[in-house]
Amino acid sequence: MHNSLDVITIGEAMAMFVATETGELADAEHFVKRVAGAELNVATGLARLGMNVCWISRVGDDSFGRFVLNSLKKENIDTRGVTVDGRFATGYQLKSKAENGTDPIVEYFRKGSAASHLSTDDFHAAAFNEARHLHLSGVAAALSSTSYELLEHAAAAMKAQGKTISFDPNLRPVLWKSEAEMIEKLNRLAFQADWVLPGLKEGAILTGQQSPEGIADFYLQRGVKAVVIKTGPDGAWYKTASGEQGAVAPVKVDNVVDTVGAGDGFAVGVISALLEGKTLQQAVQRGNKIGSLAIQVLGDSEGLPTREGLGE
After folding, report:
1. pLDDT tens digit string along 118-130?
2. With CB atoms counted within 10 Å of each terminal CB, which end of the chain scores lower, N or C?
3. Has residue 2 got a pLDDT over 50?
4. Domains (range + CATH), the chain
C-alpha cells in the first residue's frame, strides 16, 4: 500500500516579528511578520519538495493562530492534526536583524502557549498510521512534560510499525529545568530514531564526546542506523551502523543574511533524499545545499527551495 502521507511531525509554530533595521530590539520600530518553528520549518521544506506532510500542533483561537493556519495551507501542509485551543494563546517571538552573518537575538513569548499543552490526546492515530516517516526535534520535546510524552508515544507507535524516525536535537537549554534532564530526555528520544542529526556542539553536550566519530558511535552503539553531524564551516560528517563514513564539504555562501533555519534546511535535505532512496552521502550533500539556501534569506523558512529551485 502506498502511504498517502510521507512525513508527520510535531511542534510549535509562533508568529515571528523580524526587525527590519539592525541594533537593539528595544529600539527597533519596524518589523516584518513571519511564521517560525523548527519542526514547521522542516515540514515546510519537505512540502515544497513535493512531499505530503502532516503537522501536529495546537494554536490559540487568535489572530496569530489563524496566521499560522493560513501559512500552513499556503504551503500545502496537512492541518488535520492542528487543534485550535481557545484556552491558551499562540506564542510569538521577536528577532533582531543581525549583521555580518552573526546569529540574531531572539526573544520568545511562548510560556503557557497553546502548543505547550500538546499531549497524548494529540496522537491522531489515523494520520500516524498513514505516514511512512516521523520527524522529531528537541524543541517540541522541551515545551512541556505532556508534549514530551506525546513525542515518546508517537516514536514508539511508529517504531512498532517498522517506520523510519529522524531526530534533530535542536537544543534549547532555556526551556529545560536542568541540563541533566535535557540530556537524559533527548537521548531517550534519539535512541528511538533511525537517523540522528546533531550539531557538533549539541552532540558533545548530549554524549560527552568531542569528536564527530565519538558522537556518532555513542548513538550507533544504541541502535541508531545513521548519524549525521553538522560541523558548521566544515560542512557535515556522517557514519552509518554498517561503518560507512565520510565528510561532506559545505556549500560556500558569500552573503549570509540570517543564520536561523540552517539546521532545519539541512534536515529537510537529508530526510527528503533518504526517503527518495538516495545514499547517505547524497542526502548530506542535499542537506548542505538546502542549509546554504536557507541562510541567504531573511526569515526561517523563506529560503527553502522548491524541487525546481533545488536544481538537482
Report:
1. 999 999 999 999 9
2. N
3. no
4. 5-11+38-80+117-305 (3.40.1190.20)
